[in-house]
Amino acid sequence: MAADSRTNAGVDYISSYKKLFDLSLPEERAIIICTSGNLSVSQGVLTRLNRDIQNQEEKSLHTLGNMYDVAQYIGNKSREIQELDRQWLEKDNIDSRCNFLLAGQIKGEAPQLYLIYPQGNFIQATPETPFLQIGETKYGKPILDRTITYNTPLEDVAKCALLSLDSTMKSNISVGPPINLVMYETDSFDIRHKLELRLGAPYIAKIRKLWEQSVRQAFEAMPDIEWKQESSELEEDVLID
Amino acid sequence: MAADSRTNAGVDYISSYKKLFDLSLPEERAIIICTSGNLSVSQGVLTRLNRDIQNQEEKSLHTLGNMYDVAQYIGNKSREIQELDRQWLEKDNIDSRCNFLLAGQIKGEAPQLYLIYPQGNFIQATPETPFLQIGETKYGKPILDRTITYNTPLEDVAKCALLSLDSTMKSNISVGPPINLVMYETDSFDIRHKLELRLGAPYIAKIRKLWEQSVRQAFEAMPDIEWKQESSELEEDVLID
Fold first, then answer.
1. Kind and range of the H or E element at B50?
2. DSSP letter (8 states) at residue B25
3. Is A193 in Cβ contact with B163 (below 8 Å)?
4. Domain carrying residue B94
5. What is the pLDDT along chain B (241 residues), one digit of tens a residue?
6. A187 occurs within a structural domain
7. What keywords appear on the UniProt entry (chains A, B) (predicted)?
8. Which residues neighbour B54 within 8 Å (Cβ) at sequence distance 6 or greater?
9. Under a CB-based contact definition with an 8 Å cutoff, are residues B225 and A158 in contact?
């Protein structure tokens, strides 16, 4: 799981908030949540998730018996906050929508990855669609589409996630560092690999440079375009073709 | 200038329409227009632009003295159609917005590139921002951001435009072939290089394969991530960090 930290409420109010949260119960369950969308809603949801853990509620991220129920529980928390705030936000045309990614593994189950929609419903990643994205997803999707399959080795997936986020940062100011990255190994029930890459981190600079060189090389290696030679004889065709 | 040909009115109504039009007056002026957005509006605008040429109106793409005035004239045509249709479209929440790219050269001027907004106002490309995009722009922007500068040779720019469109086609079903591409050389006052690449065109298959190989190589060459080793000691930190 990887996330940037940029939030904005218009270009004149840009700030930094983490969007990746480790809510694991080590040795028993690994739970990572990423957020996108309205910050007051996502913070509210996270606070309530943490409060239920701390208050040792019957239902919490640390007690629910399977990931499907965890996804439903997070969806319900999101609906709770929306019931409180949504009509007030709508009065000023403020978007209250929020997406969540939920990844992890509960003992007795396989590792799972869910995307929880603003409406509180959710979908699960499958072998055919092995990655899910939320937030500013388009810039970084081509890299993922061309490299990630269900069988891609874990370390390669991590690099690819970083490249995808870096591409997005380069093309869109609404995405920015630090980047948070965690890597989870099946049946470890603990998040052993974490990384926070701040602005100017040498690793980011290194992969960015390498990537830019590769892109340029690739595109220099491309065969020349075989133009269909046109001449003014065709000027009758006002529309091309 | 390059454009795909996919239009859709929802996933159950996908069809093919050209979005790149050569309206040049050979030996005197080169004028290429690309469109995105509501098809009835963009077709209406194109029809009116052609009609003014055919009727030898005082103001047309073939008579206006400079590209700035041409951009304003196209913006005004777009406003005309919107005045006719917009309130009817809005009744059914149909988006009437339409963007245009205008590129070319009129004798006596330097070549110019404009983006005309749905509101009829427009901006011009500059040495700092040498390319403009309309429509489904995000997937293809990272490749352009990393390769195109004001001084990139023309043939390289053409390849890069193809790669950018191909990336977008791979990641989004709302973009599809045929791809239309034209290349204009300053002071030629004629479009001498045109290309239409249909579904399954060998060149597209070739560059797609080459590009995918390069992306994979680049990303295999990336240095390993230097993980900050975390252990369960840090479990107190419910939020990462």
1. helix B39-54
2. B
3. no
4. 2-135+178-199
5. 999 998 887 777 878 889 999 999 999 999 999 999 999 999 999 999 999 999 999 999 999 999 999 999 999 999 999 999 999 999 999 999 999 999 999 999 999 999 999 999 999 999 999 999 999 999 999 989 988 999 999 999 999 999 899 889 888 888 888 999 999 999 999 999 999 998 888 888 888 888 888 877 877 788 888 887 554 444 334 444 4
6. yes
7. Hydrolase, Protease, Proteasome
8. none
9. yes
**Which residue, among B53, B138, B149, would best test binding to A if mutated, counting the most A CBs under 10 Å from its CB?**
B138
Over the stretch A36-66, which tens digit does the pLDDT of each residue have?
Answer: 999 999 999 999 999 999 999 999 999 999 9
B240 domain residue, yes or no: no
- Alpha carbon distances (Å) from B165 to A28, B177, B232: 46, 9, 46
Taking alpha carbons only, the member of B163, B162, B164, B118 closest to residue B141 is B164
Asked whether the beta carbons of residue A163 and residue B20 sit closer than 8 angstroms, the reply is: no
- A180 at interface of B, judged by CB pairs closer than 8 A: yes
The reported pLDDT for the residue numbered A37 is 94
Asked whether the beta carbons of B128 and B101 are under 8 A apart, the reply is: no
Number of domains present in the structure of chain B: 1
Residue B210 counted as domain residue: no
Residue of A225, A226, A234 for testing the chain B interface, max B β-carbons within 10 Å: A225
User: Is A142's CB within 8 Å of B231's CB?
Assistant: no
Output DSSP code: residue B237: -
pLDDT at B144: 92
Show the DSSP H helices in B64-153 as ranges.
67-91, 141-147
Q: Do A155 and B225 touch (CB under 8 A)?
A: yes
Q: How does DSSP classify residue A196?
A: E
Q: What are the backbone angles phi and psi of residue B195, rounded to the nearest 5°? A: -155, 135
The chain A residue lying nearest B222, using CA atoms, is A207
Residue A65 lies in a domain: yes
